[in-house]
Amino acid sequence: xxxxxxxxxxxxxxxxxxxxxxxxxxxxxxxxxxxxxxxxxxxxxxxxxxxxxxxxxxxxxxxxxxxxxxxxxxxxxxxxxxxxxxxxxxxxxxxxxxxxxxxxxxxxxxxxxxxxxxxxxxxxxxxxxxxxxxxxxxxxxxxxxxxxxxxxxxxxxxxxxxxxxxxxxxxxxxxxxxxxxxxxxxxxxxxxxxxxxxxxxxxxxxxxxxxxxxxxxxxxxxxxxxxxxxxxxxxxxx
Length: 238
Known about the structure:
Elements: H1 10-23, H2 36-43, H3 47-60, E1 63-64, E2 72-73, H4 76-79, H5 82-88, H6 97-121, H7 123-130, H8 140-157, H9 162-168, H10 171-181, H11 187-197, H12 199-203, H13 207-229
Antiparallel strand pairs: 1-2
Helix pairs in contact: 1-3, 2-3, 6-8, 6-13, 7-8, 8-9, 8-10, 11-13
């Protein structure tokens, strides 16, 4: 591990660099970190700052700290929690198309439920957000931002606070992958179908119909995303 010059916020810097080193395999899963004194010197931060960061990383599931023993790097995909997910998406170089596909699978499982609840509980708010689609410019940036805001409002309006908490954990990567997604063939058409098809169930507060539509669209969006995994040239579809 090379030496770094710490920025104004040493704790944030330290956590970022340690997670980066774990993700790159410099500190591999089930390996142990250097001793506290050595590691603090390598990072250029104080030992209290390092301890604070390691304790936070332990809570999230990155490392295992045991008194009198070296700190172990955990298998974070098995032992981690939502903090790990949130941290990974801050390291965009390590967010592969396959990983993003897994996030889309998660959305496919969650979105139909929070859509049904939102339509049943808060249809007027959902309708007001959806109005923005009618003047939406057909560009990847515009659609990705609108789709994020719409899904976030659906999650909030579901009445279950866990749904927006989950979505908030990968907001940044959602917007990044949205720009990639809307460069693929069929993406605009599918979203337009989704927004238009929801109009009637929103008006009638028909949550079950909205859930069915969302299930269909989320499954099809995964198929479109697989174009990236199969090496489709995005530029041809812009």
